């Protein structure tokens, strides 16, 4: 199974990045992640980014730029549970509204020096490394 995901690296004026905690019931649950979600059929990654960020955080992205695209394969003991994720990552620094965990998820602004204190899904490691060098 291949899943395309639009991901936002939301960075504020203080150079802090917004992270959200995954529900314990989700794949890679209880880990921190960069907000975003699945790209639906007949939707571009940019459209999915805007939709997902509004749904998850209640903010309206004003502009974003492509940061990177990451492909990661999660191999499970049961091959039927294995999946490949393609993360289309966007740098977001301009939005309207105040981010909040609309779906009840904890969110947090963290500095680059604090980011290693949080556990992320393995597919997010490359995003963390890019953010450390911004």
Automatic annotation (TrEMBL):
The enzyme's E.C. designation: 3.6.1.55
Limits of the Nudix hydrolase domain: 1-134
PROSITE patterns recorded: NUDIX (PS51462), NUDIX_BOX (PS00893)
Residues where Mg(2+) binds: 36, 56
Annotated keywords: DNA damage, DNA repair, DNA replication, Hydrolase, Magnesium, Metal-binding, Mutator protein
Record: residues binding 8-oxo-dGTP: 22, 27, 33-36, 124
Keyword field contains Iron: no
Domain of life assignment: Bacteria
Cofactor(s) named in the record: Mg(2+)
GO biological process: DNA repair; DNA replication
Gene3D superfamilies with a match to the protein in the record: Nucleoside Triphosphate Pyrophosphohydrolase
Molecular-function GO term, any one: metal ion binding
Broad class of enzyme this protein falls into: hydrolase
Catalytic activity: 8-oxo-GTP + H2O = 8-oxo-GMP + diphosphate + H(+); 8-oxo-dGTP + H2O = 8-oxo-dGMP + diphosphate + H(+)
Family, similarity comment: Belongs to the Nudix hydrolase family.
NCBIfam families named among the record's database cross-references: mutt
Protein name (record): 8-oxo-dGTP diphosphatase
């Amino acid at each position: 199974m291949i899943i395309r995901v639009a991901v936002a690296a939301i960075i504020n004026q203080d150079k802090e990045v917004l992270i959200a905690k995954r529900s314990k019931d989700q794949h890679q649950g209880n880990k921190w992640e960069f907000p975003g979600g699945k790209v639906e059929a007949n939707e571009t990654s940019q459209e999915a980014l805007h939709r997902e960020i509004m749904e998850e955080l209640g903010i309206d992205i004003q502009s974003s730029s492509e940061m990177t695209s990451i492909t990661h394969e999660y191999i499970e003991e049961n091959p039927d549970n294995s999946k490949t994720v393609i993360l289309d990552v966007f740098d977001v620094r301009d939005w309207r509204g105040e981010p909040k965990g609309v779906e009840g998820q904890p969110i947090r602004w963290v500095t680059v020096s604090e980011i290693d204190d949080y556990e992320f899904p393995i597919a997010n490691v490359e995003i963390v490394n890019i953010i450390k060098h911004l």
